[in-house]
């Protein structure tokens, strides 16, 4: 166990965290990135080909993109620590972060870029065909299912927005919802109901994702929650849209959150409810959740943190 003092602690190592580290490192600060013990690099390390990140006309593998960002951050002096934060005392001028291994880091500013975790179905075949038919991002993966049958699981605004978007690509889109009414906004429900390519299976839950090693997912087995009957629905694309959970547990209520658990910030800035603490990426953004928007917010967090440190000097 050790204690270390630095200028800025960045908690999280996705596009937001690494971008913040690049900017702060170039500005002459000594950012320490607490990258996580199991999945440094955020959700992109579990993503195959990324085709919509600017600068890569032929696409890039998610892990390769995050590895390049990490190396760039290290080039400018960032220290990467592969451990998890278990507690954070962010009140006062000195912020203290305790890691799972027992080490403690102290800094004058903290950037929280821990992202959010997708809520999963937890059914057989979901993990096996993740990235090979099962997806959690329509914007990222819809293009791959052009002319193929698609299902969307969920009944909120995200699910119906994704269903409408995916109808541009799929031969058909079937929305599977466990209740008999939607939680989504009326305007989104009306739009989906008027879309000739979208069908609905209400009072139904996914029991299993079927597929094979060669082609990936090819269907889902659903169960009617009223009758108990099971039906197999063709689906090369299975988009799960049942929500996200922001990774804020380690804060133990230290920062103000909105009703959905996302960290609230001051207007277009990344300033949180605690001076000297900034937040960026999917832990703030419950709408866009894109690598490029997270990276942009990481830049803003670095500049906000730099301004704060200059004022405190």
UniProtKB/TrEMBL annotation:
Residues 7-298 form the FAD/NAD(P)-binding domain. It catalyses: [thioredoxin]-dithiol + NADP(+) = [thioredoxin]-disulfide + NADPH + H(+). Keywords: Disulfide bond, FAD, Flavoprotein, NADP, Oxidoreductase, Redox-active center. Binds 1 FAD per subunit. Its EC number is 1.8.1.9. Its cofactor is FAD. GO terms for molecular function: thioredoxin-disulfide reductase (NADPH) activity. PROSITE patterns: PYRIDINE_REDOX_2. Belongs to the class-II pyridine nucleotide-disulfide oxidoreductase family. This is Thioredoxin reductase. It comes from Bifidobacterium thermacidophilum.
């Amino acid at each position: 166990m050790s204690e270390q003092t630095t200028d800025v602690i960045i908690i999280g190592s996705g596009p937001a965290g690494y971008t913040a580290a690049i900017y702060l490192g170039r500005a002459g600060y000594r950012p320490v990135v607490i990258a996580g013990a199991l999945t440094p690099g955020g959700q992109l390390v579990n993503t195959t080909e990324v085709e919509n990140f600017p600068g890569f006309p032929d696409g890039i593998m998610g892990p390769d993109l995050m590895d390049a960002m990490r190396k760039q951050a290290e080039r400018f002096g960032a220290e990467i620590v592969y451990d998890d934060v278990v507690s954070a005392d962010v009140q006062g001028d000195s912020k203290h972060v305790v890691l799972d291994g027992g080490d403690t880091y102290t800094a004058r500013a903290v950037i929280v870029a821990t992202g959010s975790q997708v809520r999963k179905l937890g059914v057989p075949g979901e993990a096996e065909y993740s990235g090979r038919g099962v997806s959690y991002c329509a914007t990222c993966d819809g293009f791959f299912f052009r002319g193929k049958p698609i299902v969307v699981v969920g009944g909120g605004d995200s699910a119906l927005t994704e269903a409408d978007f995916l109808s541009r690509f799929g031969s058909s889109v079937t929305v599977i919802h466990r209740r008999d009414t939607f939680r989504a906004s009326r305007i989104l429900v009306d739009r989906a109901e008027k879309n000739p390519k979208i069908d609905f299976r209400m009072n139904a839950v996914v029991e299993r994702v079927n597929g094979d090693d060669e082609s990936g997912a090819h269907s889902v087995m659903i169960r009617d929650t009223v009758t108990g009957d099971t039906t197999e629905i063709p689906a090369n694309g299975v988009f799960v849209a049942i929500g996200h959970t922001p990774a804020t547990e380690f804060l133990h209520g230290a920062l103000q959150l909105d009703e959905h658990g996302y960290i609230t910030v001051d207007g277009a800035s990344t300033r949180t409810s605690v001076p000297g603490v900034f937040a960026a990426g999917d832990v703030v953004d419950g709408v866009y959740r894109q690598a490029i928007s997270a990276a942009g917010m990481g830049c803003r967090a670095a500049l906000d943190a730099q301004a704060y440190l200059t004022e405190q000097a």
